Amino acid sequence: MLCYPVGCGLGRYFLVRAGESEFESMGIINTNPVEKTSVDNGLSERGKKQAIKAAFDLKEMGACDKGCWIWSAITQRAYQTAEIIASVNGVTRRFVCLLLFFFSI
User: Fold this and answer.
1) Is residue 71 part of a domain?
2) Owning domain of residue 48
3) 30 domain-assigned
4) Is 51 part of any domain?
5) 1 within domain boundaries
6) Burial per residue of 21-32, b for 16 or more beta-carbon CB atoms within 10 angstroms, e otherwise
């Protein structure tokens, strides 16, 4: 079993849903995984505001006060949300990681 970062299972975890996408803002339901990673499907203006609010909420909770890793799905809006959270919380890109695999049971 690979525990990455070291100390897997220890510490605090915060789950944040990505902000609203451009497609969602137009009422388009898109389930195609290839299109969901498209640069055309990034955060809408409302989604950016949602991500900024989440970032400051996390900062207020001290989520990254002692350092943290940010794990993001591969969708454009998820990575944009992760970058906003990282920026507000002083986390360098080195600690923003894409989840490139899926767990199956």
Assistant:
1) yes
2) 22-98
3) yes
4) yes
5) no
6) bbbbeeeeeeee
Residue 51 contacts by C-beta under 8 Å, 6 or more apart in sequence? 18, 19, 43, 80, 81, 84, 85
Residue with tokens 């900024």, as numbered in its chain: 52
For residue 100, how many C-alpha atoms fall within 13 Å in the half-sphere facing its CB?
A: 3
Residue 83 to residues 20, 31, 60, 73, 96, Cα–Cα distance (Å): 15, 23, 17, 12, 7
pLDDT score at 39: 65
Confidence (pLDDT) at 11: 74
Q: What is the pLDDT of residues 2-61, one digit of tens each?
A: 444 555 556 788 889 999 998 889 888 877 766 666 667 889 999 999 999 999 999 999
DSSP codes, 33-96: HHHHTSGGG-B-HHHHHHHHHHHHHHHHHTTTTT---EEE-SSHHHHHHHHHHHHHTT--GGGE
The total domain count for the chain is 1
Q: 67: alpha, beta or left, given left = phi > 0 and alpha = psi -120 to 50?
A: left
Distance CA 102, CA 21 (A): 22
